[in-house]
Amino acid sequence: MSPKYANVSERELEPPSLAISTVIFALRPDPDSGKLTLWLPLVRRIRQPYLDLWALPGGPLRPTESLQDAAARNLRETTALEPRYLEQLYAFGGPDRSPSPRVVSIVYWALVQPDEAALARQDENVAWFRADGVGTLAFDHNQIVEYALWRLRSKMEYGTVAYAFLGERFTLAQVRDVYEAVLGGELDPANFRRQLLASPHIEPTSEYLQGGRHRPPRLYRYTGPVPQTDANPRPEPRS
Amino acid sequence: MSPKYANVSERELEPPSLAISTVIFALRPDPDSGKLTLWLPLVRRIRQPYLDLWALPGGPLRPTESLQDAAARNLRETTALEPRYLEQLYAFGGPDRSPSPRVVSIVYWALVQPDEAALARQDENVAWFRADGVGTLAFDHNQIVEYALWRLRSKMEYGTVAYAFLGERFTLAQVRDVYEAVLGGELDPANFRRQLLASPHIEPTSEYLQGGRHRPPRLYRYTGPVPQTDANPRPEPRS
Q1: Could you tell me how many CB contacts below 8 A there are between chain A and chain B?
Q2: Interface membership of A147 toward B (CB under 8 Å)
Q3: N or C end of chain A: smaller count of CB under 10 Å?
Q4: Cross-chain Cβ contact A63/B151 below 8 Å
Q5: Nearest chain A residue to B65, by CA
Q6: CB–CB of B238 and A63 under 8 A?
Q7: Which pLDDT does position B89 carry in this prediction?
Q8: How confident is the model at residue B214 (pLDDT cuts 50, 70, 90)?
Q9: In this complex, do B8 and A63 lie within 8 Å of one another by their Cβ atoms?
Q10: Minimal Cβ distance to A104: which of B14, B18, B147
């Protein structure tokens, strides 16, 4: 019997198991340039397979909890993060994505604001990585991160998702920082400002950014639908 | 030991199992009014639990197939349908969604054109139902259908998804029929026509609808991104 055949027949005997993983995106300044960039927290594998490689936070589904609750609990237990919005992204379950037995991972994701991200545990087994520099991850987690990035970038087109990264009041330059961090590259400030002011749901406040500037920039607020990972506020199915 | 506690501890022993389900939407004329309405195929349960109730087509995941392949195979085996586009919708896995052992269902969905829908098997165990009149379904399938309808309606706003229901050439009235069938209710023909002609990606052809009319309406075509269930053409993750 060839090794390949042995492997197939072993898989036949073991039903797939289920896991929950989470992709959490936050904007943080790059330590070198100071420019805002997109980061995500990863946890170090402390057992086989993929011992010592970095992986998305996650874990098993407990018998009496929903998928959503399992995602929130696993994230809290591994990173101490408790994002306000945590949504299902996609289920990954290809037959070759992990050593036998096969694991189907239901992936949740969230965009967190700096105040939430600052509460994350950081030690030798939990760290933040730039989204474009995660290195080789365990399992198919590189592919999952790429998929999440692709979804995030395509959702930026609808507009509202950018505000999930911002506080209640923000300057127009801060919105541009978010777009530049997520899409990569630079946007023309004058064009961006004009487009933003023409969009609905952006309203000037009477406040200005605190600080020592000669002409402090005005603060704006977002008045559209509650920003979520998904561009649509949707009835959360009991999952 | 209370029955409730006994149930919890039984669930503790059994890991969740995995199933794949599919929601297939097609437009068909209502047999009474002749007006286009939204329909979906259901299959009758031929075993417990929920014996004799109607349910979404679906079945198990085989050890060596991807989630996507399992969805296509289960759909083909139960209904003979082979939609051109079949995409992951959502994973449903609440602890109370099925009798023990718990089942996590990964749901795929598709929009099919009349030529595809016409190929579906129809017998005493496979039938088409109006989306707004499915009655009581097995498991939590009513909730899944409602969720799929909600997603479909919210995607109509982006525009391109309507063309997944239409052929290569269509009249403006046919586009309005799709919107009315999915959103329910009636749309003002003149307003709708004006909005449609103002949208990008809709181009007149030099052809007219065949038939015995005095002034046959012009046929248009869609030139935007390939219509899919999801408004964005997305790189299909290997799942």
Answers
A1: 110
A2: yes
A3: N
A4: no
A5: A95
A6: no
A7: 94
A8: confident
A9: yes
A10: B18
Q: Which residues from B are below 8 Å from A10, CB to CB? A: none
CB distance from B195 to chain A under 8 Å? no
CA-nearest residue to B146 within chain A is: A237
Q: Is the pLDDT of residue B178 over 80?
A: yes
Residue B217: predicted pLDDT: 92
Over residues A70-126, the pLDDT tens digits come to 999 999 999 999 998 899 999 999 888 877 778 899 999 998 888 888 888 888 999
Comparing CB atoms, the residue among B8, B150, B237 nearest residue A90 is B237
A205 contact B CB<8A? no
Per-residue pLDDT band for A5 (boundaries 50, 70, 90) equals very low
Identify from B13, B67, B89, B150 which residue to disrupt to test chain A contact, counting A C-beta atoms within 10 A and taking the largest count.
Answer: B67
CATH 3.30.420.40 fits B3-155, yes or no: no
DSSP assignment of chain A, as one string? --HHHHHHHHHHHSPPEEEEEEEEEEEEE-TTT--EEEEEEEEE--SSSSTT-EE-SEEEPPTTS-HHHHHHHHHHHHH----S--EEEEEE--TTSSSSSPEEEEEEEEEE-HHHHTTS--BTTEEEEETT---SBSTTHHHHHHHHHHHHHHHHTTSGGGGGGS-SSB-HHHHHHHHHHHH-S---HHHHHHHHHHSTTEEEEEEE--SS-SSPPEEEEE-SSPP-SSSS-------
**Percent of chain A scoring above 90 in pLDDT:** 46
* A160-204 pLDDT per residue, tens: 778 888 888 999 998 998 888 888 888 999 999 998 888 878 899
Residue of chain A with shortest Cα separation from B8: A64
Fold of B157-222: Arc Repressor Mutant, subunit A (1.10.10)
ipTM: 0.75
Second CATH level (architecture) for the domain A159-222: Orthogonal Bundle (1.10)
